[in-house]
## 1
Amino acid sequence: MARLAGRRLTGFALVRFVEDGDWFADCPVVPDFDGIQVEVCHWKLDELSIGWDMIDTAATITGWAFTP
């Protein structure tokens, strides 16, 4: 986290449903601080995972289907 000191938030990525634009809370939120990605994923009620620069936010997500 010390690497982020003094850096500005310059972007972010998250997964949204195409149908209504709602945020898909089971996927990571990826804020970008001047080229350093922080990947935050919350699971269950008390588990938090934080990673750095591992997720390709430009990749197409496949394998999910909407079933009304």
## 2
Amino acid sequence: MFMGKFKTGKTFNPLTFFVGFWCFWAIVSMTNPYQMFAVSNKTYLLVWVQVVCVSLGYLAVAKKNLSAKFDLSEVGSKILYSRTFAFLQLFVLTFLTFYYFKYKSLLSSMTSNDMRRIIFEKGLLFSSSAEYMFYYWVITAIIYASLVIAISSFALHGKKNLSLFLVLINCFMFGQVGQGRLVYFYMMVFLAVGLGLKRDIYKNSTFKIKPKKSWGVYLVLILAVIFIMNRTSARRMGVSMSFGDSIKVFFTTSVEQFIIYFTGPFRTLDYFIQSNLVNVTGHTFGRSVFAGIEEILTTLLIPIGGSQLQANMANTLMASFTSPAIHIGGGLSFNAFYTSVMNFYMDGGLPMLICLSFAYGIIMGMLYNFCMNNMNIFTFSLLVYTTYNMITSEMRWNYSAPATWVVVFVLILGHRLYVKRTVGSKGLYDYKSPSLLTKF
């Protein structure tokens, strides 16, 4: 963390968030909270190997004081005020409303235990594979891309607008379909990362803020998200509660679930290592790290005989042991989240864990340099989003999901179109010094 600040000259850089999150939850995990099983030293060693190698890769390429002084108000968030963006949110809201009422109708004849199960299966909520993919590849990607852009703009400027409201409504509806809480976690982390990055950028810019007003709005948003998460937790437990009960739930059940949520992955990873599951599935040699891209390509090849490839996809192999719940001690069961270490280890054991972790650090360092040298709403959002994925690698490798790659592609494409338009029409960027925002 200190080396990251020394190397980049900025406290809040991707490496700070990555190392801080991993180290904090590793320390908490070592206390074996709620009588959870102890994790072996070998598993913790593999965790530290990844953290160290990612850090070394990042430090090898990250540069210091990349951002020259420029007016962040010129970064612009005009896309959020466009009709196209608003219509896109209404388009998504239409689909989410349909699935919400269909989901509620299905639950009327099911138990609370089925709340999460049916959103991951085909045949009930989703009538076909095409519908399932449309929801998780397109709708989900639009929601997350819109959210990170809207939250990034909100973090930078502290301004509320109709587009932000529509994005938050879509996120709420998305969370209601399946009673998921992860989208609310996205909101809080995006905001925290965005504010942290802005704090460092602000030192080298003429961007002006109104701290008291902005922080008041941020606090209200965070409290609202926590309240919704608590209510979602209560519904998943099959109970209803008042506002007062929500506060009680937060300090009891929600805090407990929060700790389990982030320490459980160490136990599942330990299960993966101690059970030698890689000997059953075989090494995937890069396919686990790029599982999201592999799934997209394999799915597109199904019409010409790709169904056989689908059965051998890295995601299919990993799902064979990540989907079933395992006991992690204290009467608790856990599944799905096995940390990014599992993906890297699946690709070739310890040697690939070292090489891929180092390469990941290099890529993130280069991305940080690029975004800081080419600052606009899309590159800022891309930095926030990829930093989020670094943070949550403590739980899982998000790049196993096709939607993650779609979001990254959309943000990069948005940057290219933004630069093409601004350079072509206004001459805002100087290619010889792309970090400078020249005024004409």
